[in-house]
Design goal:
little secondary structure; two-stranded antiparallel sheet
Length: 73
């Protein structure tokens, strides 16, 4: 979204999103922040599993960074 200066409100951007969350990362990254993650989530099984988004047992931000569906933070 952008702010439309003539109306002073938000305006949607045209186009199609290009982020594909189902493509797993090829390598792990260190020291990444995961919005919404709590200390007890760090060892939760399936916290990065795409299938867990429907049941709210996975974090959508960690799903994008997980190298496998069974990995933990």
């Amino acid at each position: 979204m952008v702010i439309n200066m003539s109306t002073g409100g938000p305006q949607n951007l045209a186009g199609t999103p290009t982020i594909e969350i189902s493509k797993l990362q090829q390598k792990a990254y260190n020291n990444m922040g995961i919005p919404g993650a709590k200390s007890f989530h760090l060892l939760a099984a399936g916290y990065g599993n795409l299938q867990g988004l429907a049941t709210k047992t996975a974090n959508p931000y960690f799903v994008r960074h997980a190298t496998t569906p069974t990995t933990n933070v």
